[in-house]
Structures are given as structure tokens and as C-alpha cells.
């Protein structure tokens, strides 16, 4: 996707997308909201007779052709946000045991294509300066104390954001680093696209209404 942006930028002079105030220019099909009918071929139990569970989905595509991607990037949930961070939102990323994919997608939102800084979203190098902690990956024993100390070091008010299936539900290989009740924001995907991450962070800090919503009508998914 980044290479497409690069060549389009050379041709058209486009440097930064207007998303989330405008629709995404290059939304990926995978990951995106899935729609379709029940399939018993899901290795993580993300597809049930009652619908699709986005938080569990690892987008392995084993459910094709029963389930198909819609291209919609609204696969996140804001359980509670904080309008205090509306003008500036400082986030501390913490890898508790990720494969690296979520890390790459997270840091890509600060590239010229997405430029999260224009929305007042900034990464920081210490939890002491952070408004939110973004947790990526499953829980690993060696990171338990690190995660606890990082959370304690953050000033109030603060948000806890789970990024990716591993952080939310443990994915396919492990257990989540925290109890889900502690997450203020859950961003689904394996890994989530930069569009989904950017929209979720903007919504969590009380940003302007986006072209995609964290709520969606029931189309066979949740």
C-alpha cells in the first residue's frame, strides 16, 4: 500500500490523505469488516452462528468463500474516550510480545501518507509523558512487570488501548496481556490497517466525526 502512495504522490503531488475527515483513498480488503454466512473453518472461533467476532479474527482467509471482506475499516470499539485529549494526544507504544506486524502498522500512521500529527496525535518515548498506552502482542512473562510499571507511571487521566487480535484476545498463540475490562479502546485486526488505527485513536481522543464509524449495522458481523 505504501508503494502505491509513493507513485501516486510523484504523479499527482499528493502528500497526505485527508482521512479521517474524508474517505480513505486506498482502503485494503484485508483487514476490513467481514460479511457473509457462518463457517466452521475458523481456527480462532471468530465466526459463529450469531455473526463475526472482529476482536478474535486473525484474517487468515480460511473462511472464504463463506465470508468476504467489505473494505470497511471500522473494526474498532471505543469503550470509553477522553475529551481532555481532544487537541493533543500523546501515546506510548508497548510491545508485550508481538510479531512486529502491529508495530509496523502503528508507526506508519506517522508517515507522510497519514500524518497523525495533523490530528494532534504524537508518540512519546516514556509513559510519564503519555495520555494513553498502546499495547501490542500477547502476554510474555518477561513483560509483565514492564507493563505494570508503565501503566503506573502514566499520569491521570489515562487510556489503555489494545492494538491487534493478540492484545485483545490472545490471537492464535497466546493470552492477552491484560483483562479486557481494563481496555478503553480495542482495535481489531491482525494487524489492523493504518486507517483503522488512525480512526480509532482520533475517536478515542474526542476528534471530529469521521467518514467511518466504530458502530455498524448488523450485516452478519459484530
Question: Can you describe what's shown?
Answer:
This protein has 222 residues and is of the alpha/beta class. The chain is 20% helix and 18% strand. It contains five helices and ten strands. The protein has helices spanning 2-12, 101-108, 144-153, 165-169, 194-204, and strands spanning 34-36, 47-48, 51-52, 67-69, 76-78, 89-97, 121-123, 132-137, 159-163, 185-187. The strands form three sheets. It has a six-stranded mixed β-sheet with strand order 5-10-9-8-6-7, with helices on both faces. Strands 1-4 form a two-stranded antiparallel ribbon. Helix 3 links the parallel strand 8 and strand 9. The longest helix is centred in the N-terminal third of the chain and has 11 residues, at 2-12. Residues 213-222 have low confidence and may be disordered.
Computed Rg: 17 Å
Helix count from the secondary structure assignment:
5
Poorly predicted ranges: 213-222
What's the number of extended β-strand segments?
Answer: 10
Kindly report the oligomeric state of this protein: single chain
Percent range of helical residues: 10-25%
* Average of per-residue pLDDT values: 91
Spatial sequence of strands, sheet with the most strands: 5-10-9-8-6-7
Which structural class best describes the helix and strand composition?
A: alpha/beta
Q: What spatial form do the alpha-carbon principal axes imply?
A: globular
Order of helices and strands: HEEEEEEHEEHEHEH
Quote the beta fraction: 15-25%
Distance N to C terminus: 27 Å
**The biggest beta sheet, please?**
6 strands, mixed
Amino acid at each position: 500500500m505504501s508503494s502505491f502512495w509513493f507513485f501516486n504522490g510523484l504523479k499527482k503531488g499528493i502528500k497526505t490523505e485527508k482521512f479521517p475527515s474524508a474517505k480513505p483513498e486506498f482502503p485494503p480488503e484485508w483487514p476490513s469488516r467481514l460479511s457473509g454466512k457462518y463457517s466452521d473453518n475458523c481456527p480462532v472461533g471468530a465466526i459463529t452462528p450469531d455473526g463475526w467476532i472482529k476482536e478474535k479474527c486473525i484474517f487468515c482467509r480460511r473462511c472464504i468463500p463463506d465470508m468476504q471482506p467489505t473494505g470497511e475499516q471500522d473494526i474498532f470499539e471505543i469503550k470509553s474516550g477522553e475529551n481532555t485529549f481532544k487537541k493533543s494526544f500523546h501515546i506510548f507504544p508497548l510491545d508485550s510480545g508481538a510479531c512486529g506486524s502491529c508495530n509496523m502498522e502503528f508507526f506508519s500512521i506517522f508517515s507522510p501518507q497519514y500524518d497523525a500529527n495533523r490530528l494532534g496525535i504524537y508518540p512519546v518515548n516514556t509513559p510519564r509523558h503519555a495520555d494513553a498506552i498502546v499495547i501490542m502482542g500477547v502476554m510474555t512473562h518477561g513483560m509483565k512487570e514492564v507493563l505494570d510499571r508503565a501503566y503506573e507511571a502514566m499520569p491521570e487521566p489515562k487510556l489503555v488501548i489494545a492494538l491487534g487480535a493478540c492484545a485483545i484476545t490472545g490471537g492464535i498463540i497466546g493470552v492477552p496481556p491484560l483483562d479486557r475490562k481494563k481496555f478503553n479502546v480495542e482495535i481489531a485486526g491482525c494487524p489492523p490497517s493504518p486507517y483503522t488505527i488512525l480512526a480509532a485513536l482520533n475517536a478515542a481522543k474526542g476528534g471530529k466525526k469521521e467518514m467511518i464509524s466504530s458502530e455498524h449495522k448488523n450485516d452478519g458481523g459484530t
